[in-house]
Amino acid sequence: MFFGFFLTSCLVERVTIGSWQHVLPIILVASTAILLIRVSNRKLNQQKKIKTFQFLGALVSLTVIAFHVYHILLGNYNLSEDLPLFLCSFLALIIPCFTYTRRYWMYEILLFWIIAGTLQGVITPDIANGFPSLDYFRYWIVHLGLLTIIFYATFVLKMRPKFKSVFKSFFALQIYAIILMVLNNVLGANYSYLNSKPESASALDYFGEWPYYLLVMEVILIPFFLLIYWPFYLTRKK
């Protein structure tokens, strides 16, 4: 009875910034990721490091696939809202291509996409239904899982971006945005919030209304990517 009351009280319409449903998974996964990286560097040989890396990619990707299959089976799947075309869902779907091949050009692009895009989703979560909904677990596994994967590639597999990686990632993102704009127009959708801002609070709230916030994002994107690259530049210089 108490457990049922607990679940009912936890299931909210939307997760709010700073709530335990927002902060707790970040603390748990960040702690686990740090421990995993430390143990991998100290205890695992190269083959086991790669297997761990592949497992992380499979976990994140299968979570997205299972979530969408579940909603398709329910019969309420909406092509204009439910396709895995938001940046983080799209990245989660294709991330095994990187974790299994470990192609450097993929790392160059994904490092900036994941840190810039996923980090914003972690700081300002857009979760319609809180714990213990399936969407709640999918959201955090995808966002925090992607960050764990890119940090694992950096600190365990010793991948590092170059200065030109900033611009490779930027231009790849333009291609993704153009394709998504076409799909949004065809489907009457708003994937990656290219047609309007999310309902929940986000950094986009400070950039004006559509289409001005898109222009602001374009202007600040390369400086933001350069800020991400800055620690790597400092270590490379040393």
UniProtKB/TrEMBL annotation:
Quick check: keyword S-adenosyl-L-methionine in the entry?
Answer: no
User: What's the protein here called?
Assistant: Conserved hypothetical integral membrane protein TIGR02206
Does the entry feature the keyword Membrane, yes or no? yes
Recite the UniProt keywords alphabetically: Membrane, Transmembrane, Transmembrane helix
Q: Which NCBIfam families match?
A: intg_mem_TP0381 (TIGR02206)
Q: Transmembrane residues, as ranges?
A: 24-41, 53-71, 83-100, 107-125, 137-157, 169-192, 212-232
